[in-house]
Amino acid sequence: MERLIDQQLAQLDAQFTEMGVLVAKTIDAAGKAMVVGDQRTAKEIVAHDHQINDREMKLEQDAFEIIALQQPVTSDLREVVTILKAVSDLEHAGDHARDIALASLNLQREAHLKPVLILIEQFSKFTEKLMRDMLMAYVKKDWHFAQTGSQLAIEANEQHVEIYQKCVLAMKQNSEQVEQILPYVAVANSLEQIVECALNIGEWIIYRRTGEIVELKPTIGVQI
């Protein structure tokens, strides 16, 4: 006979997956809006940010109710803790997608910055795919895929560094346009933060399976 807590945990998983799909779509939309200069979509992303926040609050409330009423232990408790931690990372990823949308509203698409924009577009696609893949790993409880996060973190850092270095070069060559270039740096930083959120979810997938806290993010970063 299925336990009540199993039904409740399945419902939490369903809520998490629904929220994850919304966040992944938001990341994708924000990246595309920035690249093509779609201000309407960017403004919609900012205006609808509360939808992600509302889902986080509802999921957290339901999780705390399970803890209070069911008093889960061992693997059941790990399930609840995983969701509580991972949903926070999802919400943060949504915030960073909103920040990309905000930055894109002020982005000056100068011809000499086209190479930077192309790199950001590539990084945006990489980031959105990483989030979707990590969410799929969460649904499938695929902790082996989550363990590949360390290599993915290195790839993400390489893309982030390349964008940063090209922005610095553009600033040196066009010192009067520093303010126009800074939003590109901000967008790249937001994408890097979304990568970190996705890797955090990977760490919680591994925790749910093994009970161990791991670190998927190497100690690397933009080289100034």
Automatic annotation (TrEMBL):
- Pfam families reported for this sequence: PhoU
PhoU domain span: 17-101, 120-205
Alphabetized UniProt keyword annotations: Cytoplasm, Phosphate transport, Transport
Q: Does the keyword Protein transport apply?
A: no
InterPro entries per record? PhoU, PhoU-like_sf, PhoU_dom
Q: Where in the cell is it found?
A: Cytoplasm
| Superkingdom | Bacteria
Q: Which GO terms describe its cellular component?
A: cytoplasm
Keyword Cytoplasm part of the UniProt annotation: yes
Instruction: Mention one GO biological process in which this protein takes part, according to its record.
Output: phosphate ion transport
Give the signal sequence positions.
none
Give the matching NCBIfam families. phoU_full
Instruction: Describe, as the record does, how this protein assembles with itself and its partners.
Output: Homodimer.
Protein purpose: Plays a role in the regulation of phosphate uptake.
> Which family would the database say this protein is a member of?
Belongs to the PhoU family.
Name of the protein in its database record: Phosphate-specific transport system accessory protein PhoU
**What does the record give as the organism's lineage?**
Bacteria, Bacillati, Bacillota, Bacilli, Lactobacillales
